[in-house]
């Protein structure tokens, strides 16, 4: 391939990632949320949570944020399959989907993105552990926000994701989040 073709392949991947801004996190429909957040919104806050957790756990915050950023990018092709759906469906592995997504991208881009996804899916480093906790903690916090909006069925998701947290920092943040409102952060400035 020529450099121009690699550039087009890389831009094609970037445009595909734009679809994540339009795709909803479908698992929340199961608990009745009418307009759930998008996959991109989830991934953004997961990356921020991941960086914060990494700092608390003395892990590489940039690496964790990178892992979190790419952790759901495959959902442009396979969708957001909720936990209950995974019992009945067999989807391609995220590593396989990623390989297809970046097949026409610049070789350095393709190998870099495939390495990040492979690490998230198969690694056992502190950074991977923190990234997985960030994903769960984001889901828990989102569920708490939906509870505030009146979606009582979100409680089960909050409890289930909280129970899967592994790092001391994620557990401490989950405990701190319980009982807080989503507007808590601004109360100091309103006085």
TrEMBL record:
Assembly behavior: Homodimer.
KW Nuclease (keyword) present: no
Any one Gene Ontology cellular component term annotated for this protein: cytoplasm
Chain ranges of the HD/PDEase domain: 35-149
Enzyme class: hydrolase
Gene Ontology molecular function terms on file: 5'-deoxynucleotidase activity; metal ion binding
Organism of provenance: Streptomyces nanshensis
Pfam families per record: HD_3
Matches recorded under InterPro entries: HD/PDEase_dom, HD_domain, YfbR/HDDC2
Protein name, UniProt field: 5'-deoxynucleotidase
The protein's Enzyme Commission number: 3.1.3.89
Reaction it catalyzes: a 2'-deoxyribonucleoside 5'-phosphate + H2O = a 2'-deoxyribonucleoside + phosphate
Keywords: Hydrolase, Metal-binding
Cofactors (names): Co(2+); Mn(2+)
